[in-house]
């Protein structure tokens, strides 16, 4: 049963962190999908909120906590480096030593011999605080029979912080190298003609060269047109991505910088969604940048589930 947004995000994160802390040792593989389920969240939304609230990706938090605990055990026990490495999820002493030295600034041998030279990374403790109080301007809009024509790139879903850099870089490259091609795409509707859109699709599983399953998503940047208008384009020049029909929550974003958009996403996920009655479709987002000289205004959109509950 999907109950996302019905659980306070703080409570959900506390549940997830409790789960992580319980499974840090014994070499367990901490699956991010399982962690997200502790917060009754989709994996992608959980990754976003975890990073927005804590400042760390899930992988960074797990790695830092394990290396911190491993350092404490190294100076308080007589266990071998190999045993400690296996206990904290490393396959070989060499990979453990490399990660340990990068994190602590000293090798396991140095730390054991000198009983010093450790960095401590404590468990994150979340508390309910009197926060918010900011104004979020939004409205409900309907999008039907539309698609994005432009350029697409696949990103992994596992590193939100990295994507916050890579996606703006991708859109800048599109504008720098293909601005004229983007401006050739026109809709019969005047409003989309003033805007560039970035559409993030649902997650899908990709297989890398090592035969590992990697959670990914497709990001399409371009112009919005109706599906009937696709026939007027040279399809070989563009990537075409359909937008799911339905109602969307549209938030005004007056700060048009990437940092401004990330700040608004933080407020949406931490101040608006946990206390609203809307149940959003997980993982997909739509970003709109107004390129009209008359007005510089961005919009961030999330699709509403049809039942709204």
* Alpha-carbon distance between the two ends: 12 Å
The CATH homology group name of the largest domain = Regulatory factor, effector binding domain
Sequence of secondary-structure elements? HHHHHHHEEHHEEEEEHEE
Uncertain spans, ≥5 residues at pLDDT below 50? 1-7
Rg of Cα set: 23 Å
Oligomer: single chain
Q: Number of helix segments?
A: 10
CATH topology of the largest domain: Multidrug-efflux Transporter 1 Regulator Bmrr, Chain A
Q: Tally the structural domains.
A: 2
What would the principal axes of the Cα set say about the shape?
Answer: elongated
Strand content: 15-25%
Structural class: alpha+beta
What can be said about the biggest beta sheet?
A: 9 strands, antiparallel
Query: What top-tier CATH class of the largest domain fits best?
Result: Alpha Beta
Provide the fold topology.
Elements: H1 9-22, H2 32-38, H3 43-54, H4 58-76, H5 81-87, H6 93-104, H7 108-114, E1 138-143, E2 146-156, H8 160-183, H9 190-193, E3 195-200, E4 204-207, E5 213-226, E6 239-242, E7 246-253, H10 258-272, E8 285-290, E9 298-303
Antiparallel strand pairs: 1-7, 2-5, 2-6, 3-5, 3-8, 4-5, 7-9, 8-9
Helix pairs in contact: 1-2, 2-3, 3-10, 4-6, 5-6
């Amino acid at each position: 049963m999907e109950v996302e947004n019905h659980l306070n995000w703080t409570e959900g994160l506390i549940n997830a962190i409790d789960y992580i802390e319980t499974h840090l040792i014994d070499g367990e593989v901490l699956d991010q999908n399982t962690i997200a389920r502790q917060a009754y969240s989709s994996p992608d939304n959980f990754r976003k909120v975890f990073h927005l609230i804590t400042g760390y990706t899930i992988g960074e938090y797990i790695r830092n906590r394990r290396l911190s605990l491993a350092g404490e055990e190294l100076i308080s026990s007589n266990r071998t480096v190999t045993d400690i490495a296996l206990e904290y999820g490393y396959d070989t002493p060499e990979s453990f030593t490399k990660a340990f030295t990068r994190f602590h600034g000293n090798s396991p041998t140095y730390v054991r011999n000198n009983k010093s030279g450790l960095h401590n990374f404590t468990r994150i403790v979340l508390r309910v605080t009197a926060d918010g109080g900011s104004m979020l301007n939004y409205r409900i809009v309907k999008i039907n029979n539309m698609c994005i024509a432009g350029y697409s790139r696949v990103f992994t879903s596992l590193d939100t912080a990295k994507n916050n850099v890579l996606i703006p870089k991708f859109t800048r490259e599109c504008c720098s190298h293909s601005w004229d091609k983007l401006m050739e795409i026109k809709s019969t509707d005047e409003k989309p003609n003033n805007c560039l859109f970035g559409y993030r699709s649902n997650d899908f599983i990709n297989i890398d060269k090592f035969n590992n399953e990697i959670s990914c998503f497709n990001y399409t940047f371009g112009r919005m047109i109706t599906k009937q208008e696709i026939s007027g384009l040279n399809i070989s020049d563009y990537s075409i991505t359909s937008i799911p029909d339905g109602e969307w929550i549209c938030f005004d974003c007056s700060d048009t910088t990437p940092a401004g958009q990330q700040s608004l996403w933080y407020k949406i996920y931490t101040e608006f969604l946990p206390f609203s009655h809307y149940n959003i479709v997980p993982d997909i987002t739509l970003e709109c940048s107004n390129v009209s000289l008359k007005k510089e205004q961005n919009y961030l959109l999330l699709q509403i589930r049809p039942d709204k509950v």
